[in-house]
Amino acid sequence: MVILATLPGSSNLFSSLPPGPPPNDSPTSIPPRPPIPIPKYPPPLKSRKSPKPPPKPSTPAFKTVHNLSKYYKPVSEGVIASDGDRSVVIGESGVSYLLPGAPFEFQFSYSETPKAKPLAIREPAFLPFAPPTMPRPWTGKAPLKKSKKKIPLFDSFNPPPPGTKGVKHVEMPGPFKLGKFPVEGRTREEILGEPLSKAEIRMLVKPYLSHNRQVNLGRDGLTHNMLDLIHSHWKRQRVCKVRCKGVPTVDMDNVCHHLEEKTGGKIIHRVGGVVYLFRGRNYNYRTSPQYPVMLWKPATPVYPKLIQEAPEGLTKFEADELRMKGKNLIPICRLENAVKNGVYISLVKDVRDAFEGSPLAKIDCKGMHASDYKKIGAKLKELVPCVLLSFDDEQILMWRGHGWKSMYQGAPSFLTPIVADVASGLDGSDDPKNNNHKLDSKAVISSPKMTSLWKRAIESNKALLLDEIGLGPDALLKVVVEFEGISQAAEHSYPALVTLSEDGTGGLKAEDEGYHSEGCSEGEIYNNDDDDDDEYFVNEPFEEMESPVPPGSLPVDLLAKRLGEE
């Protein structure tokens, strides 16, 4: 410290650093802004006042319930809502709408409504049609005056003349035979007229076989708005082409029944899922019924469950065992993404045929919508009939039930194998110690004719009746070899009777009076007129059929003849 103090002119060691700015003491200076603005938070929820809710609309049409809501209202049979003469009714056909002057009760779908009565509804009950009267809202202007232009009204009996501009084609009634003319009709029989001949049906259907003008009938079946659409088709053409696809094709007879009943037409041709609907000889569009249009699709009601824990005639344990066995079962068919382009006409027959060989049947429906294969299962339950067990893994598992009867009642036992009921083996019947559910091997059901055939075959040494069933392979082979020698000897021999002639010499005479040593074939031996009186006529399986080729006309015969001449 003494040395540093003695250095000349070294009073400040940091004199090379620049001096700081002079202090500014002026009162008008503005403080610098911070780099990030200070956020402004809203006031707490307690201090804010909640706004008043808007007034509720008084019109019931604006009180619609969302599809995802949990609206549930139990209903019973009868009228559940009414507005004057217009009412919503719960009946045998589900939810229907009754309007004054209507020919029948309106429904959203006529062909796809379940037969079971609904348990509850998922939305308030109101009519999906426009109100009968609606006042004109004020727009600030007076209503327009009526147009002075007269628009001609044409109908089927008075069509517009050909070449008229601005008028579409209106089809005339018909076809009619020579000398007959259209007649105004009110009932369905009067409008249809006389039945069509085959030539008339061919003439009407042929132009529409490859025609694109058609009505598409999908998963909802025959809906209410399709009725007006079919009549609009009938205004321009005599035949309406209806193409059915998806779930309704499982029961095409039901679809055709409702088409004829609700429209008043006649189905003249049907190929697969395509139906050709004829309007009638005396149809007039001007007098056709005018149906109100349904503005929206009503919510589907709540129906009883299709799958039960303990179905008909089964306990819960037995049903679970059947479901476990059904997991390893091979499906009889696969319904691919066929909701839009599938036709299931043969599905009922396939399920019935599957039940002939197994008490369980399964259908693979992977890729289909859940509501679609559930509807198919409900239809199969009524048409087959059967018992639904599960819809797990997008598959329909069915059981044929205790009251199942085979379609082939008169079939012999060797053609239709006896299949033990699965439900009978669930309580330990598979155990050989348990003899409660063993099948009786002597109880064989066959027709009388088949029984007589077996008796005739045994008597003629063409069949052998075993005394013992539990023979080993060697013993069974020995019996078959012995029987083969006996059957061959019996096949090439005929029963004969030794008689004495007048001169005392012996001779052979056939036991059968119809047998002759010359010019008699083997087939004539069994062709006796006396067999017609037999109770069980069994000659048909043993008769030899005559050859349609005359003798000596085969190429082998010609070759043998030529070699013989040489």
Architecture overview:
It is a single chain. It is built from twelve helices and 15 strands. It has 566 residues and is an alpha+beta fold. The strands form five sheets. It has a four-stranded mixed sheet with strand order 6-7-9-8, with helices on both faces. The radius of gyration is 45 Å and the shape is extended. The model is unreliable at 1-6, 411-444 and 490-547 (pLDDT under 50).
Termini separation comes to 158 Å
Record the strand order, biggest sheet.
6-7-9-8
Oligomer: single chain
Mean pLDDT: 75
Give the fraction of residues assigned to helices.
10-25%
* Strand element count: 15
Note the total helix count. 12
SSE topology string: HEEEEEHHEHEHEEHEHEHEEHHEEHH
Sum up the overall morphology in one term: extended
- Largest sheet report: 4 strands, mixed
The structural class is alpha+beta
As residue ranges, the low-confidence spans are: 1-6, 411-444, 490-547
Strand coverage percent: 5-15%
List descriptors.
single chain; 566 residues; alpha+beta; four-stranded mixed beta sheet
Summarize the structure.
This protein is α+β, with helices and mostly antiparallel strands and 566 residues long. Helices cover 22% and strands 12% of the residues.
Write the topology of this structure.
Blueprint: H1 2-6, E1 73-74, E2 78-83, E3 86-91, E4 94-98, E5 120-121, H2 188-192, H3 198-205, E6 215-217, H4 225-236, E7 239-244, H5 252-263, E8 266-271, E9 274-278, H6 316-327, E10 333-334, H7 347-357, E11 360-364, H8 370-383, E12 387-390, E13 395-399, H9 448-459, H10 473-491, E14 496-500, E15 506-510, H11 522-525, H12 555-565
